[in-house]
Q: What sequence folds into this?
């Protein structure tokens, strides 16, 4: 089980902000000292470029860089060459649309997605469909706002070439039945692109077991640095694809009128990469694995369920996802714009997100102009949940009084 | 809740619940949207001989954003363009927490003084004012 006191000590932000109740881990996780130190170690002790240098320090840097890629690969049960580094999940998802979709999608084809998607999962395909005169279809969500296998089946057809779906919704916290969906999609020769940005810290990801064709996530949502993301692609798929960007490092031989490109994954990574960030991400994975993803999931769910119970007992609030199976609560104080409410939390040193969370389609589906979202991670404790409940109660009363005075 | 009570003054809720001059009539206007929170405001003004004779607004958003559009529509109506520009400047200074002179000139808009303690809300309190500033500068939206 998690010793939260010890865990909190790993995160230096709490030394500066001892009062902080951080409930915005869906947006980005806090950073452990060990990750920061690991990045500093690179800059301080072997901060040179990788691959090209024919000298010892460069070997050290290259070595650490490769070790980190290996850690990422093992973490999602992939192979070394199936891991492409990008800036973040958004860039990784765009890359799939540009290297795969641009080449294979044709007029009249169908791309399936959902209203639960983060903008980064849906917009690259929306724009591609526009250019290609292909059709973008949305899986009708069930009454709770979930993606179901039966609804997916209904819109699946021979015309479907790509399915782009989230693994865990960043607003509703639902887990998509992705394995079954991928199985069905493959029966129709469609490929599946999985947005695992929210899933990566809470579910054991096994790309082989779910048989994903592409899968993307960001380092900064899993205790790692910002500016580093991962695109997993099936080896056979990547091998037949051409790079989007050309330049240094990705080529093999350059002639006056031609160029041959490197093997995967290098052909998709041009220019000096985010070396410190990659190495830092490797350290973050070590930390996650030492705690255990299942332990993280159980722990965060226990606190979330405790907070949820407290919130549901209050009058004057609406919780949109009481049945979510990950540690996200989306709610509103009735009649109060989420940004007005967020200020009350901010004033009490509770950091939570207010708005549409880069997922306007689901806030529109919920028929609201935004929600408050509290998300829980390993550094949260029951006091954080108590504080959320207490301040929510105060906020309800405050706005009731505020509105009431005016009516007198 | 001291800062909070200072932020959410009664005048704000009053204008939020009962907005004045709401509804557009087709005068030159500017539409501004803050995609991160959904504040979405259009402000229009009728200007005759360098005097603002009418200001209307339309939109959705939080209480700070919507009420401030209503407050400004009353405060700046009847002012000359030069006077309005000076008041807008003064309002922005106050929101940023800077010292201002003759603060009573801001009348009900003074209620937004507390915003300076909440940097995350500065955008909400200034979006309508920025739209009006553009209207009186002639930098209006095309039809």
A:
């Amino acid at each position: 089980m998690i010793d939260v006191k010890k865990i909190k000590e790993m995160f230096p932000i709490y030394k500066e902000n001892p009062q902080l109740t951080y409930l915005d881990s869906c947006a980005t996780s806090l950073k452990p000292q060990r990750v920061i130190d690991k990045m500093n170690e690179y800059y301080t002790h072997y901060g040179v470029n990788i691959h090209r240098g024919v000298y010892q320090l460069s070997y050290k840097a290259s070595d650490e860089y490769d070790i980190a890629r290996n850690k990422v690969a093992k973490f999602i049960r992939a192979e070394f060459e199936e891991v492409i580094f990008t800036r973040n999940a958004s860039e990784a998802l765009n890359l799939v649309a540009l290297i795969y979709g641009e080449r294979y999608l044709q007029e009249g084809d169908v791309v399936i997605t959902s209203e639960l998607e983060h903008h980064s999962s849906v917009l690259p395909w929306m724009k591609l469909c526009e250019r290609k005169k292909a059709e973008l279809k949305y899986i009708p969500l069930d009454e709770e706002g979930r993606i179901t296998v039966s609804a997916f089946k209904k819109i699946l057809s021979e015309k479907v070439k790509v399915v782009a779906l989230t693994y865990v919704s960043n607003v509703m916290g639902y887990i998509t039945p992705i394995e079954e969906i991928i199985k069905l999609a493959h029966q129709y020769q469609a490929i599946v692109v999985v947005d695992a940005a929210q899933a990566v810290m809470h579910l054991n990801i096994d790309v082989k077991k779910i048989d994903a064709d592409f899968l993307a996530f960001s380092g900064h949502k899993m205790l790692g640095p910002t500016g580093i993301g991962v695109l997993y692609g099936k080896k056979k798929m990547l091998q037949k694809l051409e790079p989007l960007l050309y330049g240094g490092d990705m080529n093999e031989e350059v002639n006056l009128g031609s160029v041959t490109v490197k093997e995967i994954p290098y052909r998709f990574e041009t220019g000096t990469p985010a070396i410190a960030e990659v190495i830092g991400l490797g350290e973050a994975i070590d930390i996650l694995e030492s705690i255990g993803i299942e332990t993280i999931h159980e722990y965060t769910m226990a606190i979330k369920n405790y907070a949820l119970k407290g919130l549901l007992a209050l009058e004057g609030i609406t919780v949109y996802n009481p049945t979510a199976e990950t540690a996200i609560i989306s709610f509103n104080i009735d009649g109060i714009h989420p940004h007005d409410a967020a200020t009350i939390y901010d004033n009490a040193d509770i950091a939570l997100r207010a708005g549409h969370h880069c997922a306007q389609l689901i806030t529109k589906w919920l028929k609201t102009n935004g929600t408050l979202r509290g998300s829980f991670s390993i550094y949260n404790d029951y006091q954080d949940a108590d504080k959320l409940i207490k301040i929510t109660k105060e906020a309800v009363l405050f706005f009731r009084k505020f509105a009431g005075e005016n009516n007198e | 809740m001291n800062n909070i009570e200072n932020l959410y003054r009664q005048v704000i809720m009053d204008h939020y619940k009962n907005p004045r001059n709401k509804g557009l009539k087709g005068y030159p206007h500017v539409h501004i949207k803050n995609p991160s929170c959904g504040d979405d405001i259009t402000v229009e003004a009728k200007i005759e001989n360098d005097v603002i004779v009418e200001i209307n607004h339309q939109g959705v958003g939080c209480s700070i954003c919507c009420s401030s559009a209503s407050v400004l529509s009353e405060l700046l109506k009847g002012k000359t363009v030069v006077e309005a520009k000076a008041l807008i400047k003064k309002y922005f200074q106050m929101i940023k927490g800077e010292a201002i002179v003759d603060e009573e000139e801001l009348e009900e808009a003074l209620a937004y003084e507390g915003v300076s303690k909440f940097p995350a809300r500065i955008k909400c309190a200034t979006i309508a004012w920025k739209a009006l500033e553009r209207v009186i500068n002639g930098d209006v939206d095309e039809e």
In short: Residues 81-95 of chain B form the longest helix (15 residues). The first strand of chain B starts at residue 29 and ends at 34. The radius of gyration of chain B is 14 Å. Strands of chain B lie at 29-34, 39-48, 51-60.
